[in-house]
Amino acid sequence: MAEFSQNRSKRRDGEVLGGAVDFLLANARLVLGVGGAAVLGIATLAVKRLIDRATSPRDEDDTKEDSWQDLSLLKATPRLQSRPPPAALSQLVPPPAPSLSAPEGPAHAGPQTSPQLSLPAPPLCLTFQEKLLAFERDHVTMPGARVSLAKQLAGDIALELQAYLRNKFPDLPFRALVPGGPLYEGLQAGAADPVRLLVPLALEPGLWSLVAGSDTVAQDPRCWAVRRTQLEFHPRGSSPWDRFLVGGYLSSRVLLDLLRKALTASVNWPAIGSLLGCLIRPRVASDELLLEVQHECLELTVAVLLAVAGAQDGDLLLAWPLEGLAGNLWLQDWYPAEAARLRALDEQDAGTRRRLLLLLCTVCRSHPVLWRLGRDHLAQVVLHLGEQEADWAEEALGEHFLQALELLLGSLERASLPSHFNRGVNLLDGLREEEIDDLGFALYRGLQTPEGLL
Protein backbone atom coordinates (compact mmCIF):
# COMPACT_ATOMS: atom_id res chain seq x y z
CA MET A 1 0.00 0.00 0.00
CA ALA A 2 2.80 2.35 0.85
CA GLU A 3 4.49 1.50 -2.47
CA PHE A 4 1.27 2.19 -4.36
CA SER A 5 0.85 5.51 -2.62
CA GLN A 6 4.40 6.38 -3.48
CA ASN A 7 3.91 5.46 -7.14
CA ARG A 8 0.66 7.38 -7.29
CA SER A 9 2.32 10.42 -5.80
CA LYS A 10 5.08 10.15 -8.37
CA ARG A 11 2.57 9.93 -11.20
CA ARG A 12 0.73 12.98 -9.86
CA ASP A 13 4.02 14.89 -9.67
CA GLY A 14 4.92 13.74 -13.17
CA GLU A 15 1.57 14.90 -14.50
CA VAL A 16 2.02 18.30 -12.91
CA LEU A 17 5.57 18.58 -14.22
CA GLY A 18 4.51 17.33 -17.63
CA GLY A 19 1.78 19.96 -17.80
CA ALA A 20 4.27 22.65 -16.90
CA VAL A 21 6.69 21.37 -19.54
CA ASP A 22 3.96 21.37 -22.18
CA PHE A 23 3.01 24.92 -21.28
CA LEU A 24 6.63 26.07 -21.44
CA LEU A 25 7.27 24.34 -24.74
CA ALA A 26 4.12 25.71 -26.30
CA ASN A 27 5.07 29.28 -25.42
CA ALA A 28 8.77 28.75 -26.17
CA ARG A 29 7.93 27.64 -29.71
CA LEU A 30 6.24 30.96 -30.30
CA VAL A 31 9.08 33.03 -28.82
CA LEU A 32 12.23 31.06 -29.62
CA GLY A 33 11.20 29.17 -32.70
CA VAL A 34 11.53 25.48 -33.33
CA GLY A 35 15.26 25.24 -32.62
CA GLY A 36 15.02 27.18 -29.37
CA ALA A 37 12.04 25.15 -28.19
CA ALA A 38 13.96 21.94 -28.89
CA VAL A 39 16.90 23.04 -26.77
CA LEU A 40 14.56 24.15 -23.96
CA GLY A 41 12.74 20.83 -24.09
CA ILE A 42 15.99 18.89 -23.81
CA ALA A 43 17.06 20.95 -20.84
CA THR A 44 13.68 20.44 -19.13
CA LEU A 45 13.79 16.70 -19.85
CA ALA A 46 17.25 16.46 -18.33
CA VAL A 47 16.04 18.22 -15.16
CA LYS A 48 13.03 15.90 -14.93
CA ARG A 49 15.23 12.83 -15.22
CA LEU A 50 17.54 14.12 -12.52
CA ILE A 51 14.50 14.47 -10.23
CA ASP A 52 13.38 10.92 -11.08
CA ARG A 53 16.82 9.54 -10.31
CA ALA A 54 16.85 11.31 -6.95
CA THR A 55 13.38 10.05 -5.88
CA SER A 56 13.49 6.42 -7.06
CA PRO A 57 16.19 3.75 -7.19
CA ARG A 58 17.29 2.81 -10.69
CA ASP A 59 18.83 -0.28 -12.13
CA GLU A 60 22.37 -0.01 -13.48
CA ASP A 61 21.27 -0.97 -16.98
CA ASP A 62 18.54 1.68 -17.02
CA THR A 63 21.05 4.29 -15.88
CA LYS A 64 23.44 3.44 -18.68
CA GLU A 65 20.62 3.46 -21.19
CA ASP A 66 19.41 6.91 -20.07
CA SER A 67 22.94 8.33 -20.12
CA TRP A 68 23.81 7.40 -23.68
CA GLN A 69 20.29 8.33 -24.81
CA ASP A 70 20.72 11.75 -23.34
CA LEU A 71 24.10 12.05 -25.08
CA SER A 72 22.75 10.91 -28.43
CA LEU A 73 19.81 13.29 -28.09
CA LEU A 74 22.12 16.22 -27.46
CA LYS A 75 24.27 15.28 -30.46
CA ALA A 76 21.29 14.93 -32.74
CA THR A 77 19.89 18.33 -31.85
CA PRO A 78 21.04 21.07 -34.32
CA ARG A 79 22.96 23.98 -32.84
CA LEU A 80 21.37 27.38 -32.78
CA GLN A 81 23.15 29.78 -35.13
CA SER A 82 23.83 33.25 -33.84
CA ARG A 83 21.63 35.89 -35.34
CA PRO A 84 23.48 38.12 -37.78
CA PRO A 85 23.41 41.88 -37.20
CA PRO A 86 20.64 43.87 -38.92
CA ALA A 87 23.14 45.30 -41.42
CA ALA A 88 24.03 41.80 -42.58
CA LEU A 89 20.36 40.80 -42.91
CA SER A 90 19.65 43.81 -45.06
CA GLN A 91 22.28 42.76 -47.62
CA LEU A 92 21.07 40.48 -50.35
CA VAL A 93 23.30 37.49 -50.92
CA PRO A 94 23.04 36.36 -54.56
CA PRO A 95 22.55 32.61 -55.04
CA PRO A 96 25.55 30.71 -56.40
CA ALA A 97 25.62 30.49 -60.17
CA PRO A 98 24.96 26.94 -61.45
CA SER A 99 28.02 25.23 -62.90
CA LEU A 100 27.55 24.21 -66.52
CA SER A 101 30.43 21.77 -66.56
CA ALA A 102 29.59 19.83 -63.38
CA PRO A 103 27.11 16.96 -63.95
CA GLU A 104 23.97 16.75 -61.87
CA GLY A 105 24.15 14.30 -59.02
CA PRO A 106 21.61 11.52 -58.45
CA ALA A 107 18.35 12.26 -56.71
CA HIS A 108 19.30 10.17 -53.70
CA ALA A 109 22.62 12.00 -53.18
CA GLY A 110 21.39 13.49 -49.92
CA PRO A 111 19.68 16.63 -48.66
CA GLN A 112 21.17 19.90 -49.83
CA THR A 113 22.11 22.47 -47.23
CA SER A 114 20.49 25.85 -47.62
CA PRO A 115 22.91 28.79 -48.22
CA GLN A 116 23.72 30.80 -45.11
CA LEU A 117 23.99 34.55 -44.84
CA SER A 118 27.63 35.70 -44.88
CA LEU A 119 28.74 37.88 -41.98
CA PRO A 120 30.99 40.92 -42.61
CA ALA A 121 34.67 40.20 -42.15
CA PRO A 122 36.19 41.57 -38.92
CA PRO A 123 38.58 44.55 -39.26
CA LEU A 124 42.20 43.64 -39.86
CA CYS A 125 44.69 44.24 -37.04
CA LEU A 126 47.68 45.95 -38.64
CA THR A 127 51.17 45.52 -37.29
CA PHE A 128 53.37 48.51 -36.47
CA GLN A 129 55.41 47.82 -39.60
CA GLU A 130 52.28 48.06 -41.77
CA LYS A 131 51.14 51.24 -40.02
CA LEU A 132 54.58 52.78 -40.50
CA LEU A 133 54.56 52.03 -44.22
CA ALA A 134 51.06 53.50 -44.53
CA PHE A 135 52.23 56.64 -42.71
CA GLU A 136 55.18 56.91 -45.07
CA ARG A 137 52.90 56.62 -48.09
CA ASP A 138 50.40 59.21 -46.85
CA HIS A 139 52.60 61.80 -45.10
CA VAL A 140 56.24 61.44 -46.19
CA THR A 141 56.44 60.63 -49.86
CA MET A 142 56.08 63.61 -52.20
CA PRO A 143 54.60 63.04 -55.67
CA GLY A 144 57.06 63.36 -58.50
CA ALA A 145 55.11 66.21 -60.10
CA ARG A 146 55.36 68.30 -56.94
CA VAL A 147 59.08 67.60 -56.62
CA SER A 148 59.66 68.75 -60.19
CA LEU A 149 57.60 71.90 -59.64
CA ALA A 150 59.46 72.70 -56.40
CA LYS A 151 62.83 72.31 -58.14
CA GLN A 152 61.70 74.56 -60.97
CA LEU A 153 60.52 77.28 -58.58
CA ALA A 154 63.73 77.07 -56.53
CA GLY A 155 65.86 77.35 -59.66
CA ASP A 156 63.91 80.36 -60.94
CA ILE A 157 64.16 82.12 -57.57
CA ALA A 158 67.91 81.46 -57.53
CA LEU A 159 68.32 83.10 -60.95
CA GLU A 160 66.25 86.13 -59.95
CA LEU A 161 68.10 86.58 -56.67
CA GLN A 162 71.47 86.22 -58.35
CA ALA A 163 70.58 88.95 -60.86
CA TYR A 164 69.48 91.18 -58.00
CA LEU A 165 72.72 90.70 -56.02
CA ARG A 166 74.86 91.50 -59.04
CA ASN A 167 72.94 94.71 -59.67
CA LYS A 168 72.70 95.73 -56.02
CA PHE A 169 76.27 94.84 -54.99
CA PRO A 170 78.36 94.89 -58.17
CA ASP A 171 81.61 95.14 -56.18
CA LEU A 172 80.95 91.98 -54.15
CA PRO A 173 82.01 88.83 -56.02
CA PHE A 174 79.30 86.23 -55.39
CA ARG A 175 79.53 82.89 -57.13
CA ALA A 176 76.56 81.30 -58.88
CA LEU A 177 73.66 80.62 -56.53
CA VAL A 178 73.09 76.90 -56.18
CA PRO A 179 69.77 75.42 -54.97
CA GLY A 180 70.17 72.12 -53.15
CA GLY A 181 69.35 70.27 -49.98
CA PRO A 182 67.04 67.38 -49.15
CA LEU A 183 64.79 68.06 -52.14
CA TYR A 184 67.68 67.30 -54.49
CA GLU A 185 69.02 64.36 -52.47
CA GLY A 186 65.77 62.41 -52.16
CA LEU A 187 65.60 63.36 -48.48
CA GLN A 188 62.68 65.79 -48.62
CA ALA A 189 60.46 65.07 -45.60
CA GLY A 190 57.29 66.74 -46.81
CA ALA A 191 56.78 70.30 -47.98
CA ALA A 192 57.97 71.79 -44.66
CA ASP A 193 61.60 70.83 -45.33
CA PRO A 194 63.26 73.98 -46.73
CA VAL A 195 65.21 74.13 -49.97
CA ARG A 196 68.80 75.25 -49.37
CA LEU A 197 69.80 78.16 -51.62
CA LEU A 198 73.54 78.63 -51.23
CA VAL A 199 75.05 82.08 -51.84
CA PRO A 200 78.80 81.34 -52.08
CA LEU A 201 81.33 84.09 -51.48
CA ALA A 202 84.29 84.25 -53.86
CA LEU A 203 87.20 84.92 -51.49
CA GLU A 204 90.59 85.77 -52.92
CA PRO A 205 93.10 82.93 -52.54
CA GLY A 206 95.99 83.76 -50.27
CA LEU A 207 94.20 86.54 -48.42
CA TRP A 208 92.13 84.37 -46.11
CA SER A 209 92.79 81.47 -43.78
CA LEU A 210 90.64 79.30 -41.55
CA VAL A 211 91.01 78.98 -37.76
CA ALA A 212 89.23 76.22 -35.85
CA GLY A 213 86.58 77.55 -33.49
CA SER A 214 88.08 75.62 -30.58
CA ASP A 215 91.25 77.71 -30.99
CA THR A 216 89.42 81.04 -30.79
CA VAL A 217 88.16 82.94 -27.77
CA ALA A 218 84.71 81.39 -28.34
CA GLN A 219 86.15 77.85 -27.97
CA ASP A 220 83.29 76.47 -30.07
CA PRO A 221 84.24 73.27 -31.97
CA ARG A 222 81.22 73.64 -34.25
CA CYS A 223 82.57 76.75 -35.95
CA TRP A 224 85.48 78.22 -37.87
CA ALA A 225 86.87 81.73 -38.06
CA VAL A 226 87.81 83.28 -41.42
CA ARG A 227 90.89 85.41 -40.75
CA ARG A 228 92.28 88.12 -43.05
CA THR A 229 95.94 87.50 -43.88
CA GLN A 230 98.77 89.12 -45.88
CA LEU A 231 97.90 92.59 -44.59
CA GLU A 232 101.50 93.74 -44.97
CA PHE A 233 101.42 93.01 -48.70
CA HIS A 234 97.69 93.50 -49.32
CA PRO A 235 96.53 96.18 -46.89
CA ARG A 236 93.02 96.50 -45.66
CA GLY A 237 90.77 97.62 -48.51
CA SER A 238 92.46 95.47 -51.11
CA SER A 239 89.58 93.01 -50.91
CA PRO A 240 85.93 94.01 -51.34
CA TRP A 241 85.14 91.82 -48.31
CA ASP A 242 87.35 93.92 -46.01
CA ARG A 243 84.45 96.14 -45.05
CA PHE A 244 82.88 93.18 -43.27
CA LEU A 245 85.87 92.57 -41.00
CA VAL A 246 85.49 92.57 -37.22
CA GLY A 247 88.73 92.29 -35.31
CA GLY A 248 90.60 91.01 -38.34
CA TYR A 249 88.02 88.27 -39.09
CA LEU A 250 85.30 88.10 -41.74
CA SER A 251 82.08 88.53 -39.75
CA SER A 252 79.18 86.28 -40.65
CA ARG A 253 76.85 88.42 -38.53
CA VAL A 254 77.55 91.62 -40.52
CA LEU A 255 77.00 89.82 -43.82
CA LEU A 256 73.76 88.30 -42.53
CA ASP A 257 72.45 91.71 -41.54
CA LEU A 258 73.32 93.11 -44.99
CA LEU A 259 71.54 90.33 -46.85
CA ARG A 260 68.56 90.36 -44.47
CA LYS A 261 67.93 94.05 -45.13
CA ALA A 262 68.18 93.46 -48.86
CA LEU A 263 65.75 90.53 -48.85
CA THR A 264 63.16 92.24 -46.67
CA ALA A 265 63.31 95.82 -47.96
CA SER A 266 64.94 96.01 -51.38
CA VAL A 267 63.93 92.97 -53.41
CA ASN A 268 60.68 93.41 -55.35
CA TRP A 269 59.22 90.03 -54.43
CA PRO A 270 55.68 90.81 -55.70
CA ALA A 271 57.04 91.43 -59.20
CA ILE A 272 59.22 88.30 -59.10
CA GLY A 273 56.34 86.22 -57.77
CA SER A 274 54.03 87.51 -60.50
CA LEU A 275 56.62 86.57 -63.11
CA LEU A 276 57.02 83.04 -61.69
CA GLY A 277 53.31 82.48 -61.05
CA CYS A 278 53.55 82.31 -57.26
CA LEU A 279 53.57 84.46 -54.11
CA ILE A 280 56.97 85.05 -52.43
CA ARG A 281 57.36 86.66 -49.00
CA PRO A 282 60.42 86.87 -46.74
CA ARG A 283 59.88 85.60 -43.21
CA VAL A 284 60.73 88.68 -41.19
CA ALA A 285 60.36 87.19 -37.71
CA SER A 286 62.97 84.46 -38.24
CA ASP A 287 66.67 84.81 -37.46
CA GLU A 288 67.40 82.73 -40.54
CA LEU A 289 66.98 84.07 -44.08
CA LEU A 290 63.81 82.30 -45.17
CA LEU A 291 61.50 82.85 -48.12
CA GLU A 292 57.93 81.53 -48.09
CA VAL A 293 56.70 80.49 -51.52
CA GLN A 294 53.01 79.84 -52.15
CA HIS A 295 51.97 78.23 -55.43
CA GLU A 296 48.55 76.98 -56.34
CA CYS A 297 49.88 73.41 -56.23
CA LEU A 298 52.28 73.55 -53.27
CA GLU A 299 53.91 75.60 -50.52
CA LEU A 300 57.66 75.85 -50.28
CA THR A 301 60.26 77.33 -47.94
CA VAL A 302 63.62 78.50 -49.29
CA ALA A 303 66.54 79.03 -46.89
CA VAL A 304 69.10 81.54 -48.22
CA LEU A 305 72.55 80.56 -46.89
CA LEU A 306 75.73 82.60 -47.21
CA ALA A 307 78.63 80.17 -47.52
CA VAL A 308 82.40 80.00 -47.85
CA ALA A 309 84.57 77.01 -48.70
CA GLY A 310 85.74 74.87 -45.79
CA ALA A 311 89.11 73.41 -44.89
CA GLN A 312 88.63 70.31 -47.04
CA ASP A 313 87.20 69.85 -50.50
CA GLY A 314 83.43 69.81 -50.38
CA ASP A 315 83.17 71.29 -46.88
CA LEU A 316 81.04 74.37 -46.39
CA LEU A 317 80.96 77.04 -43.70
CA LEU A 318 77.64 78.84 -43.29
CA ALA A 319 76.77 82.28 -41.96
CA TRP A 320 74.43 81.20 -39.18
CA PRO A 321 72.74 83.29 -36.46
CA LEU A 322 74.95 82.21 -33.55
CA GLU A 323 74.94 83.77 -30.09
CA GLY A 324 77.60 85.02 -27.76
CA LEU A 325 81.27 85.04 -28.68
CA ALA A 326 80.60 82.76 -31.67
CA GLY A 327 78.37 85.37 -33.33
CA ASN A 328 81.04 86.33 -35.91
CA LEU A 329 82.15 82.75 -36.66
CA TRP A 330 81.05 80.44 -39.47
CA LEU A 331 79.19 77.24 -38.71
CA GLN A 332 80.50 73.95 -40.11
CA ASP A 333 77.86 72.47 -42.43
CA TRP A 334 77.81 68.68 -42.16
CA TYR A 335 74.75 68.14 -44.33
CA PRO A 336 76.66 67.32 -47.58
CA ALA A 337 78.81 64.74 -45.78
CA GLU A 338 75.79 63.20 -44.02
CA ALA A 339 73.79 62.92 -47.23
CA ALA A 340 76.73 61.41 -49.13
CA ARG A 341 77.43 58.85 -46.38
CA LEU A 342 73.80 57.72 -46.14
CA ARG A 343 73.56 57.43 -49.91
CA ALA A 344 76.74 55.34 -50.06
CA LEU A 345 75.53 52.99 -47.31
CA ASP A 346 72.14 52.48 -48.95
CA GLU A 347 73.72 51.80 -52.33
CA GLN A 348 75.87 49.04 -50.83
CA ASP A 349 72.96 46.90 -49.61
CA ALA A 350 69.86 48.56 -51.14
CA GLY A 351 69.01 49.68 -47.61
CA THR A 352 66.36 51.95 -46.11
CA ARG A 353 68.48 54.30 -43.98
CA ARG A 354 67.38 57.42 -45.82
CA ARG A 355 63.74 56.33 -45.58
CA LEU A 356 64.18 55.93 -41.84
CA LEU A 357 65.59 59.46 -41.62
CA LEU A 358 62.60 60.82 -43.53
CA LEU A 359 60.18 59.03 -41.21
CA LEU A 360 61.92 60.34 -38.10
CA CYS A 361 62.00 63.90 -39.44
CA THR A 362 58.31 63.84 -40.34
CA VAL A 363 57.24 62.34 -37.01
CA CYS A 364 59.31 64.74 -34.92
CA ARG A 365 58.36 67.84 -36.90
CA SER A 366 54.64 67.35 -36.27
CA HIS A 367 55.02 66.38 -32.57
CA PRO A 368 54.35 69.07 -29.92
CA VAL A 369 57.58 68.21 -28.04
CA LEU A 370 59.85 66.26 -30.41
CA TRP A 371 59.98 69.14 -32.91
CA ARG A 372 63.09 70.32 -31.02
CA LEU A 373 64.97 67.37 -32.53
CA GLY A 374 66.16 68.65 -35.89
CA ARG A 375 67.51 66.88 -38.93
CA ASP A 376 71.07 67.15 -37.60
CA HIS A 377 70.17 65.21 -34.41
CA LEU A 378 68.24 62.53 -36.26
CA ALA A 379 70.87 62.12 -38.97
CA GLN A 380 73.51 61.26 -36.36
CA VAL A 381 71.26 58.54 -34.94
CA VAL A 382 70.58 57.02 -38.37
CA LEU A 383 74.28 57.13 -39.26
CA HIS A 384 75.13 55.37 -36.00
CA LEU A 385 72.56 52.64 -36.61
CA GLY A 386 73.37 52.45 -40.30
CA GLU A 387 76.95 51.42 -39.64
CA GLN A 388 76.12 48.98 -36.83
CA GLU A 389 73.06 47.07 -38.02
CA ALA A 390 73.40 44.63 -40.92
CA ASP A 391 69.82 44.05 -42.10
CA TRP A 392 68.36 47.15 -43.73
CA ALA A 393 65.64 45.54 -45.81
CA GLU A 394 62.18 47.09 -45.84
CA GLU A 395 60.87 44.37 -43.55
CA ALA A 396 63.14 45.66 -40.76
CA LEU A 397 62.14 49.33 -41.10
CA GLY A 398 59.76 49.25 -38.13
CA GLU A 399 62.35 47.60 -35.90
CA HIS A 400 64.98 50.19 -36.85
CA PHE A 401 62.49 52.99 -36.15
CA LEU A 402 62.11 51.75 -32.57
CA GLN A 403 65.88 51.28 -32.26
CA ALA A 404 66.38 54.91 -33.29
CA LEU A 405 63.97 56.05 -30.59
CA GLU A 406 65.81 53.96 -28.00
CA LEU A 407 69.15 55.41 -29.10
CA LEU A 408 67.76 58.93 -28.86
CA LEU A 409 66.39 58.21 -25.40
CA GLY A 410 69.75 56.91 -24.23
CA SER A 411 71.49 60.00 -25.62
CA LEU A 412 69.08 62.26 -23.76
CA GLU A 413 69.67 60.36 -20.53
CA ARG A 414 73.40 61.02 -20.91
CA ALA A 415 72.78 64.53 -22.32
CA SER A 416 75.28 63.64 -25.03
CA LEU A 417 74.83 63.15 -28.77
CA PRO A 418 78.26 63.47 -30.43
CA SER A 419 78.49 64.40 -34.10
CA HIS A 420 79.33 61.53 -36.39
CA PHE A 421 82.07 63.54 -38.15
CA ASN A 422 83.38 65.50 -35.16
CA ARG A 423 83.21 63.64 -31.86
CA GLY A 424 84.06 66.80 -29.97
CA VAL A 425 80.72 68.39 -30.91
CA ASN A 426 77.76 67.55 -28.66
CA LEU A 427 74.58 68.30 -30.58
CA LEU A 428 72.54 68.48 -27.37
CA ASP A 429 74.49 71.42 -25.96
CA GLY A 430 71.94 73.87 -27.30
CA LEU A 431 69.08 72.35 -25.27
CA ARG A 432 68.17 73.34 -21.74
CA GLU A 433 67.80 70.74 -18.99
CA GLU A 434 64.01 71.02 -18.88
CA GLU A 435 63.83 70.63 -22.65
CA ILE A 436 65.90 67.44 -22.44
CA ASP A 437 63.54 66.13 -19.73
CA ASP A 438 60.49 66.85 -21.89
CA LEU A 439 62.08 65.16 -24.89
CA GLY A 440 63.01 62.12 -22.83
CA PHE A 441 59.51 61.74 -21.43
CA ALA A 442 57.97 62.10 -24.89
CA LEU A 443 60.30 59.45 -26.31
CA TYR A 444 59.58 57.11 -23.38
CA ARG A 445 55.85 57.37 -24.02
CA GLY A 446 56.46 56.92 -27.73
CA LEU A 447 58.31 53.67 -27.11
CA GLN A 448 55.40 52.41 -24.98
CA THR A 449 52.85 53.13 -27.73
CA PRO A 450 54.75 53.83 -30.98
CA GLU A 451 51.51 53.92 -32.99
CA GLY A 452 50.64 57.16 -31.21
CA LEU A 453 53.56 58.91 -32.90
CA LEU A 454 52.20 58.26 -36.40
Automatic annotation (TrEMBL):
Residues 147-338 form the Mitochondrial dynamics protein MID51-like C-terminal domain. Interacts with DNM1L. Residues 83-98 have a biased composition (Pro residues). Belongs to the MID49/MID51 family. It is found in: Mitochondrion outer membrane. The keyword Mitochondrion applies. The chain crosses the membrane at residues 21-47. Residues 77-116 are annotated as: Disordered. It comes from Moschus moschiferus (Siberian musk deer). Keywords: Membrane, Mitochondrion, Mitochondrion outer membrane, Transmembrane, Transmembrane helix. PANTHER family: MITOCHONDRIAL DYNAMICS PROTEIN MID49 (PTHR16451:SF11), MITOCHONDRIAL DYNAMICS PROTEINS 49/51 FAMILY MEMBER (PTHR16451). This is Mitochondrial dynamics protein MID49.
